Amino acid sequence: MRAQDLTFAYPAGGPVGSVAIAGVSLTLEPGELLIVAGTTGSGKSTLLRLLAGLLVPDEGVVEADGVPVLDRRARGQVAIVFQNPESQFFSETLEADVAFGPRNLGHADPPGVARAALEAVGLDPDVYGQRSPFTLSGGEARRAAIAGALALQAPYLLLDEPTAGLDHRGRADVIAALQSERGRVGVAVVTHDPEEFLGVASQVLLLVEGRMAYSGPVEALLDAPEVYERAGLQLPDLIRTQLDARAHGALVARIVFEPEAAGSALLAARTAYGHGAMPESIERVEGDSRSADGRAGES
Amino acid sequence: MIEVREVSLSYPDARRPALDRVSLTVAPGELVALLGANGSGKSTLMRLCNALLQPDSGRVAVDGLDACDESNLWAIRSRVGFVQQNPENQIVGTVVEEDVAFGPENLGVPADELRTRVDQALAQTGLTGFERREPHLLSEGQKQRLAIAGALALRPAYLLLDEPTAMLDGRSRAEVLGVLGRLRQQGVGLLHITHHLEDVADADRVVVLREGRIAYQGPSGPVLSDPDLAGSLGIEVPAMARLATTLRAGGVGLAQALPTPEEVGVALWG
Amino acid sequence: MRIPVAFGQYVPVVSPVHSLDPKAKMGVGVAFTLGVFLVDGLPGLLAIGVLVALAISASRVPWGIALRGLRALALILSFTLLAHTLRWNSPGEALFSLGPLGVSGPGLVTGVFFAFRVVLLVVGTSLLTLTTTPVELTDALERIMRPLEVLRFPAGEVAMMLTIALRFIPTTAQEAEKIIIAQTARGARFDEGGPIRRIRAFVPVLVPLFVNLFRRAEDLALAMESRCYQGGVGRTHLHVSRMVARDWATLAVVSLVLVGIGVAL
């Protein structure tokens, strides 16, 4: 999926808090997970709608596999999940609701596709299929709504704040579902709290007031945290701790997103740095801190 | 003081009691955090504190007023404010100041005092200047602060908050937590249901419910630094607390259970 | 997600009409409607029309906004006019004719009368909502309905229901639009097929909307109880509007003139 120099402004009377975007470009391949991050009012949701073909850009074009998304032929190429998607349920059974999308697109076997989609998000169709969508818990409902989009079998999946309002188990379940689907689709996630996605994303696009402030891999962004902060976002404490360690001259080769792993890495870096408690490394410390590269990379 | 003593409550057709001989107190100026899995009875317990629900057995009293006595109902509800998760569904008025005035209007407070209370509640929640704004033009954080202002207009001594930040983004969450912190300093007693332990790490007491019973009651430190305890309580430990535990196990002298990056930096690098 | 700006929505401007007590304005509105229906012919309507024009200019509401509602009525107005004016195969009355179709002179006058009456009613009554906020309107309605409480009519509660309904109109509209977009993104089409198909296409929008409305009502009831709502009796109001001499005078004079025109002309 490709977007080139997108520019868009709502005509007077746009939705509350909507923002124009200018000059935004991005690419998304199947297998990738792209985070679109920015504060409220940075244009993230607007961008998502443009990518889904729900808005017509003033300038620029969005294509999915070479076909402009605004074209009829692109129908079913891009699936989008909006905020609080559980409010779209209307059917008596979950299977029927998830099958709504494929049925509209004229699919040959909507129930079959629906069941597959429910499996993909970790909801056993034999258990959940005949249940009323209105009886699901918060996390289950969110995953079921995402299944509704997965059932469209589109190669590109866009999600607006998919983990908002869920407790930690719900969030973990959603991220797991997205990870499992990632293999065959390109996923773009809009979020204002990228914390939980930084560990699984391949690319980040930072928006500030409708313009791109950064576009590229996650690691490079973490090397330049000022960009992040200028975008009005705060890096998670765990990341900041590791970046601080680097600033102190300690070697933390790769920023890690898992607290225990980060702890081990910091302990190892601390040992190499010279404050270590292990007596046998004291003589080696002097030499090691000079030859920075190799050693502290082990964690 | 909100006093809940040995209350039990069962919903019709339920397998087990929603609450089973639970006791709890909230004193003025105290922050009591209430945690637990969904279905553990947190919301039920909270709704007993402002007499929205009646227990099957046990006693609930607010500043000495028995909540089971119907004649105390409005006195209790004007002492104990209540803020829910969804900001949208708590706003009644067509403009901000009308909504804030709703509570005291119900109590027949005269017009000039209504004005004072509205202005004060708006000031306490940082919404001065928004008097004539229509609710659908507010951000989610502003809406939730409006809901708090609406509760504050009753001049409550206690505030019940049922996951007040669950539907808010980071910035709005910080706004609301800031308001709550100031209220606590002003002497309001807070009972705060949340899934984010980091928001209530400085609570006077953390109460964890499991299947209708109290599984833990005490400071937040032990829960933050003992992953087994947290796991058995079904509580997610915040990332920085987990980091701290790992570092301590590696011999780092780190006092705080939930340190800031700066505090970790000092402990590691001096 | 456009917030629908209904015609007749409040225009925040300072004017003598805006500052009139809403109850007086409502009273004038009743007299106005009465006068318009009592009038026998065009001269009477024109006289009232002049008064409406004066009121609009006094209200400082831009004419474009004041007349905006007429656009939606264009179809009905044309139909009314044509229905009265055109005659089939009655050459006697015709001013001029095109085969069997004739334009009747008296018919034309009647057509203009009825059409203009609709115009006056719409523009005149919208002036009320253009110059009065929803809060003022519901408070005024409550005061007016208060005497009915003697007959056990729940004036306070009805006013509260109106307020809540008004408060949630923009919110519900926003939500409806979100749901429509979400279902569209799942391939739903709302513009295909015959009338029955099109109505059924809205089920995926109406069901979620209603489910949310019920949930909303429950949460709101809880919030209202927590904030000590005990019904309409004994409630005070942040803004109290009292009728003063100016209001009574305006109400009396304008009402008399309007009804007088209705009776006389």
Features:
heterotrimer, A: alpha/beta, C: 265 residues, mainly alpha, three-stranded antiparallel sheet, disordered N terminus
Can you walk through the features of this model?
The complex is a heterotrimer of chains A (299), B (270) and C (265). With 299 residues, chain A is an alpha/beta fold. Helices cover 38% and strands 18% of the residues of chain A. Chain A contains 12 helices and 10 strands. In chain A, helix 2 (94-104) runs parallel beside helix 5 and helix 11 packs across helix 12 (282-290). The longest helix of chain A is centred in the last third of the chain and has 17 residues, at 259-275. Chain A is globular. In chain A, 44% of the residues are buried. Chain B is α/β, with parallel strands linked by helices and 270 residues long. Chain B contains 10 helices and 10 strands. Chain B has helices spanning 42-49, 73-79, 96-106, 111-124, 140-152, 170-185, 220-225, 227-233, 239-249, 261-269, and strands at residues 2-9, 19-26, 31-36, 57-62, 65-66, 80-83, 158-162, 189-193, 205-210, 213-218. In chain B, the strands form 2 sheets. A 6-stranded mixed sheet of chain B has the order 6-7-8-3-9-10, sandwiched between helices. In chain B, strands 2-1-4-5 form a 4-stranded antiparallel sheet, covered by helices on one side. Chain B starts with a strand and ends with a helix. Chain C has a 3-stranded antiparallel sheet with strand order 1-3-2. In chain C, a hairpin with a 2-residue loop joins strand 2 and strand 3. In chain C, helix 1 packs parallel to helix 10, helix 2 (42-59) runs antiparallel to helix 10 (245-264) and helix 4 (69-85) packs antiparallel against helix 5. Chain C is flat and about 75 Å long. Chain C starts with 21 loop residues before the first helix and ends with a helix. At the B-C interface, helix 2, helix 3, helix 4 and helix 5 of B face helix 7 and helix 9 of C.
Concise overview:
The complex is a heterotrimer of chains A (299), B (270) and C (265). Chain A is α/β, with parallel strands linked by helices. Chain A has helices at 44-51, 94-104, 110-120, 125-128, 138-150, 168-181, 195-198, 218-223, 225-230, 237-247, 259-275, 282-290; strands at residues 2-8, 21-27, 33-37, 59-64, 67-68, 78-81, 156-160, 186-191, 203-208, 211-217.
